[in-house]
Amino acid sequence: MKSRTINSLALIVVLMTATVLTGCSTSVKRMDAGEVTDLSGTWNDTDSRLVSEEMIRDVLGRPWIDHFISEKGDLPAVIVGDVRNLSHEHINVATFIGDIERELINSGGVVFVASKTERGEIREERQDQELNASSKTAKQMGQELGADFMLTGVINTILDTEDKEQVRFYQIDLSLISLADNRKVWVGQKKIKKIIDKSTFRF
Amino acid sequence: MSQRCLNQNKGTRKPLFALSCTVMALALSGCVGVSLSYQRDDIESLLLTQQPARALEILQEREAEFRSKSIYLMDKAILLRMQGELEASNTAFEQAKTVIQKLDAISLLEQGAAVTINDSMRSYLPPPFERALVHCFKAINYLELSQYNGARIEILQLDELLKQKNDIQFPFARYLSGLVFEFNHELDNALIAYRKAYQAYESTGTAIPSVLQYDLLRLTEYLGLNEEQEQYADQFQLDAWPKQQEVNQQARAIALIFNGLIPRKHSIEINAHSPEDGQLHRISTPYFEHRATRVYAARLSSGSYSTQSEILDQLDRHAQAALDDEMPAIIARTIARVSIKNRVVDETRNNSSLLSFALNIAAFITEQADTRAWNTLPQEILLIRLNLPPGSHDIELELSGSSLPGSVKSWHQFNINRGEVKMLSYHWPDSHVTDRRP
After folding, report:
1. Nearest Cα to B387, choosing from B358, B421, B338, B347?
2. Quick one: pLDDT at residue A163?
3. Is the predicted pLDDT of residue B42 greater than 70, yes or no?
């Protein structure tokens, strides 16, 4: 009877030690970038990807590019403007804007112009070239391509919380505005809704 | 005393009665002694002599204990911002938020340890006012970094938190929300936040600061809410206030002074010795010491422009209200723990008197109140608003009442454009304990 109790105790100690040791070790598992992983319920890579996919599909499927090309005989030049994050979270908008930019350029239908901060760096380099590069290779100032459209947008959220349950509603609105006359030539919208059930107990 | 505090006292009556009965029973059965237990922390001493850099070194030398990780991170974030490392401070605050979110779930293991050993066996879950302050300080860091949208996000999260904890009234958090909306040029949202700040001051029975009075009048007038504006004008007995059109032409500097140090929690211990069975008994509960700030006023000036500070909020009141809220649960756990410990000692006595004696000593020693709290917080928050002509200014902050070096702080060539607002802040922990007794 006594030895059975000692054995049981030993087994518990071994199991607990194994659990603690497993908990202490760091494990890394590589996974596909497209795989959905929701840990906290906040904005993550999946949301960013869903937004960029929806926006790319929409912006390329609309007639504004054809209208512009038939009217001007050239590809539209687009610049990324301010995408305001009015949500409850610190969201990195650069990821899905980067995706949209890449897909639009690769589609061959649109030309992108460097953003305000990127332009500053390039202008500095051009100034440097004027002083230091050979006249054959130095790039001239004042030869920049002016954008035809500006991509702007806003991210909004609505939260509804009751005890441990929370509904998170994200709405992303992007617009393409003509710099010549302020016309909105395209408006894209993506809505994401999540229900987060927080756990009541922890270890 | 606020209505909320009165309600809390009603709520604590039953457990207090039970605790009194237990103490009486102990007193009747033997000799009873009451002692106060307190210790001074190195970090506190360094802060009182205005050495936040050394205080941060000491903090980082200590290993962050798992159960007090949230306090470690919140202290680290404050010490970083005191040295002007605002981005690093925000990283620490964000880590603290993640830890706190995880602690929202109940740990049965920790709860079990709390009713058998002591309350410090639980992970420290900051009370709602401390959680709100994490967002507030993070928002202030963003404002000082001129990242107004970041501050706005924190304020939205703060609003969500206050909505969930709808029983806490936090005037400073609401007023700061209004300021953040103004920085983002959202005057309608700013007015809503100022109204909530006004309600919070009213419900806590605190005088409405004049800056809030002027803000309410300015924005209700600008947004065409004439009836509401007349009500405020009547109530505050004001017939002149800055107009929004004037404000748009000026440059404004807003300074927040985090004055003093929040009172420390200590424990009151009731020790008893039972002559019948020789058992030792202890009941230990936390209480706050009483502190006073040394600085009684602050002045912000630039050339011929100068303005005085006013108190925006007193955090020691919020800390005391949070402890009052928690006290019924503390007392209930204490009673349960004393019963469990006594029963274990009684039951082992028949088998082994030596083991019973050892258990009694262990139970007696481990019975300690949980005195953990976010101790790097200030005792009170002062606000100064200085209207200036647009341009570059040398701004000086002068603190009255403290003899320590550094009580005059300068910001040189501080540039503020027309219609722009800039945030400044300064921590001045110099303060003293007025009474260590409860």
Report:
1. B421
2. 84
3. yes
Residue holding tokens 């219609």? B419
Contact between chains at B107 and A200 (C-beta distance less than 8 A): no
Helices (H), ranges, B208-314? 210-222, 226-236, 244-249
Are the C-beta atoms of residues B218 and B210 closer than 8 Å to each other?
no
pLDDT at residue A40, as a whole number: 83
Sheet holding A77-85, edge to edge: A111-113, A77-85, A149-162, A165-178, A184-197
Nearest to A86 by CA among B179, B181, B46: B181
Helical segments of A25-88, H only = 45-61, 64-72
Which residues of chain B make contact with A87, given a CB cutoff of 8 A? 153, 156
pLDDT level of residue A164 (50, 70, 90 thresholds): confident
Q: How far apart are CA A10 and CA B326, in angstroms?
A: 40
Residue B367 · residue B283 · CB < 8 Å: yes
The least confident of A11-20, A147-156, B147-156 is A11-20
Q: Flag if A201 and B156 touch (Cβ within 8 Å).
A: no
d(CA A65, CA A61): 9
Note the pLDDT of residue A123: 95
Q: Give rounded-to-5 percent helix, strand, coil for chain A.
A: 40, 30, 35
For an interface test with A, give the residue of B99, B153, B163, B180 to mutate (most A CBs within 10 A): B153
d(CA B408, CA B398): 5
ipTM over 0.90: no
For residues A50 and A67, give the distance between their C-alpha atoms in angstroms, rounded to a whole number: 27
Query: What's the gap in Å between the CA of B210 and the closest CA on chain A?
Result: 30
Residue labelled with tokens 């005989």: A73
Q: How far apart are CA A89 and CA A43, in angstroms?
A: 7
pLDDT in tens, B385-437: 999 999 999 999 999 998 888 899 999 999 999 999 999 999 999 999 999 88
Which residues 136-175 of B are in CB contact (within 8 Å) with A? 149-150, 152-153, 156-157, 160, 163-164
Q: Which residue of B has its CA nearest to A159?
A: B160
| Contact criterion met (CB < 8 Å) for B104 and A201 | no
Instruction: Decide: helix, strand or coil at residue B41.
Output: coil
- Calculate how close chain B gets to A113, using CA atoms only, in Å: 25
Record the tokens describing residue B33, joined without a space: 């002694």
Tokens 């955090």, located at residue: B315
How many CB pairs (< 8 A) connect A and B?
Answer: 36
- pLDDT over 70 at A74, yes or no: yes
Strands (E), B118-175: none
Quote the minimal CA–CA distance from B156 to chain A in Å.
5
Q: Which residue has the tokens 């949500």?
A: A87
Q: What residue in B sits closest to A200 (Cα-Cα)?
A: B105
Kindly report, residue by residue over B336-367, the tens digit of the pLDDT: 998 999 888 888 888 888 999 999 999 999 99
Backbone angles phi, psi at B266, to 5 degrees: -125, 180
Would you state the pLDDT for residue B167?
64
pTM of the entire structure? 0.87
**Helices of type H across B223-314:** 226-236, 244-249
